[in-house]
Amino acid sequence: MRNLLVFMLFASLFGCINVEQLQPVARYAVFCVLVPEDSVVAASVVRIIRVGERFTTDSLTVPGADVLLTNEIGDRLRLVYNARQRRYVATNQSFVKVNQRYRLVISFSDSKPMTASCTVPDVAPVLQLTGQVINDDYSFSAQWQDNPNRRNQYKLSPTLSAEANPNASGPLGGTATATPTSMVLFVSWDDSSASYLYVNDELTQTGQVLQRDGTIRRLSDVKKLILTLSLLNADRLFLDYDRLSLKQNGTEDDLLTRFSEPIELPSNIENGLGVFCAYSRSTVKIQVK
């Protein structure tokens, strides 16, 4: 009777569990963004930090992986580990192109390969960029050409750089003369009736125009003021990851600890975590003083 009960217990347990559906725990994470305008292709591969685990930078980096990129016509680009940068890099000699689909395969000696695919969006040209400085206040307006008949997602990054007068009271500190202009995330799409912007979590129907204002410190010491605008036409995964990673970690540079448990970041990596995504960049500069 006892043996029968034990048999029934094991039978019920195995009857409730499908062993084939059990998923292995991810061991590694990757962050790789393809940009046609960049001269280098880079991928960061890190070990996932478990809850309560003590770690160092060296213990998180993974130098022994094989990182391979392929495009839809079979061209291959192998990334090599750079110990100083703690990431895998390769020279981008026209390998990354707009409107092409790429596949990333990262192989390990002790784990299943991580794989992912993404398509590089087309460039969205900046049509007009204007800026002015009145007293100590500056403002700028940007207008760009939205790609028609598709859902487009952008990230706008404006920066100011200044050149000091010879008689300035002290060093300007590079771009520190302007109040920081945070990057702006928004998304637009064509629904045959209107275009929308997703700006700072507020949905507004304003077309493809964005205005920003700020204040210049020590404007009298500034000889030349240059406004640089970078417009990124990105895929949705890049924007979601960028926004959520800053929310979780509070910094753009803390890549190694982005994948510490609990992990709330989006992922499109098979057999691992992280993102493989792309954007195209348009850059325009104007002198506002």
What does this structure look like?
The protein has 289 residues and is mostly beta strands. It folds into 2 domains: 28-121 and 251-280, Immunoglobulin-like (Sandwich), CATH 2.60.40; 126-234. It is 11% helix and 43% strand. The strands form 3 sheets. An 11-stranded mixed beta sheet has the order 7-6-3-4-5-2-1-16-15-10-11, with helices on one face. Strands 8-9-14 form a 3-stranded antiparallel beta sheet, with no helix packed on it.
Main sheet characteristics:
11 strands, mixed
Distance between the termini: 93 Å
- The helix content is 10-25%
Count of DSSP strands: 16
Number of domains as seen in the coordinates: 2
Named at the architecture level, the CATH assignment of the largest domain is Sandwich
* SSE pattern: HEEHEEEEEEEEEEEEEHE
Radius of gyration, in Å, reads: 24 Å
What is the average of the pLDDT values? 70
Principal-axes geometry comes out as globular
Question: Which fold name fills CATH's third level, the topology of the largest domain?
Answer: Immunoglobulin-like
- Low-pLDDT segments, ≥5 res: 2-24, 172-207, 249-253
**Structural category:** mainly beta
CATH class of the largest domain: Mainly Beta
Q: Strand fraction band? A: 35-45%
Q: Kindly report the spatial arrangement of strands forming the biggest sheet.
A: 7-6-3-4-5-2-1-16-15-10-11
Total number of helices: 3
Short description:
With 289 residues, the protein is mainly beta.
Question: Any descriptors?
Answer:
single chain; 289 residues; mainly beta; Immunoglobulin-like; 2 domains; 11-stranded mixed beta sheet; 3-stranded antiparallel beta sheet; 3 helices; globular; disordered N terminus
